[in-house]
Amino acid sequence: MLKGSNETNEKVKKARKRRTEILLGFILIVFIIYKFSLYNYFSFVVQKDAKTIISDFERNYLYSQSISTEAYKRMKNEILLGSYTTKEKLNGLFQTAINNASDKDTTFKYADIMKGNFGYSTYKKMKFESKTVNGDTIYIKMDSFGTNAGEKFYKALDKLGKKEYLVIDIRDNARGDYSEAVEVADLLIPEELDICFIETMKAKHYYNSDAFLFNFKKIFVLVNENTASSAEMLALSLKETLGDKVELIGKTTAQKSIGKFYKEYYNKIEFDIVTLKWSVKGKSAEALSEYLGKYSNSSFEKLDDYMAQVNTLK
Q1: What whole-number distance in Å separates Cα of residue 6 and Cα of residue 15?
Q2: Which residues pair with 140 in a beta bridge?
């Protein structure tokens, strides 16, 4: 009897130890999820956050008619009925509007740990570079129009001092705030001239230049097939306003006469929403091809190729 009793006690002890290990493991997992905000990588979205995300989309989306359909309204109501929803259902709602508008530019991305999706974000901090080249030329590179791009552009020109030539490198610049691009154009265009026309879901606005001006003998704007949206607006605005004083160098651009609203949420969701259309003197991004056609047979693989062309045109 004693032997059997001891075996029973050992089994009970092992069972208790196992339960304790499982409990501690569960507590550790919960702590790690909380400590490193891993719960944001799951698919669930509480109703309050869902309302905020949907509201941001509807207030900023250019193609407002696509969120007025019965299908969209029905899906929205179903999502907001419960205390929580999923990122997948939100994506389905927004894709309904995007498909209705035949919109190929708006994106909705999210992390979902259950589907192995961690690398959801496409956001990259703006890279800004400025320097003097060959003593007579200011070179400025912007890969987006991020926060304070206009101010950084101004400070770079002011710091580097008066030079004859300016090179603006906006290759691979496809995102950012259109108002920053307007501010850059304003620094280079004489007073009271047109910069661009902007149309959003709710308003229309013409932008004109003010009195302040950095003057150059010639401005060179470097573009490529990934130059899009606000960057194209800047290139076309400078060319249409300053004429022969501006040379656009590159084979083509993305031809997107739009601007976007970008927002990232704490629960690992991001939006890149088409929020406006732009034009310059009635022309869209397609007009850039008129000025770039002469370079259709040229080879522009790296910066040196562009700068070689700049040097021949000085």
Answers
A1: 14
A2: 130, 168
In the chain, which residues have pLDDT < 70?
A: 1-17, 20-39, 41, 116, 118-123
pLDDT at residue number 120: 61
| Residues 223-239 pLDDT 10s | 999 999 999 999 999 99
Distance CA 94, CA 91 (A): 5
What six digits make up the tokens of 47?
């109703």
Q: Give residue for tokens 């910069």.
A: 195
- Confidence (pLDDT) at 304: 97
Quick one: pLDDT at residue 298? 93
For the chain, domain boundaries: 40-114, 128-260+275-313
Q: Name residues whose C-beta falls within 8 Å of residue 103's C-beta, 6 or more positions apart in sequence.
A: 63, 66, 274
Residue length of the chain: 314
CATH topology of domain 128-260+275-313: 2-enoyl-CoA Hydratase; Chain A, domain 1 (3.90.226)
CA distance 64 to 269: 22
